Amino acid sequence: MDDLIRDCVGWRKIDAACVVDYLFRSDMWASVLRGTNVNPTWAATVLDRKGFLVVKHERRLTAWLAIGGVKQPFYWVSGRILDGD
Question: 57-66: long-range contacts at Cβ-Cβ below 8 A with a sequence spacing of 24 or more?
Answer without folding.
Answer: 62/26, 63/23, 65/23
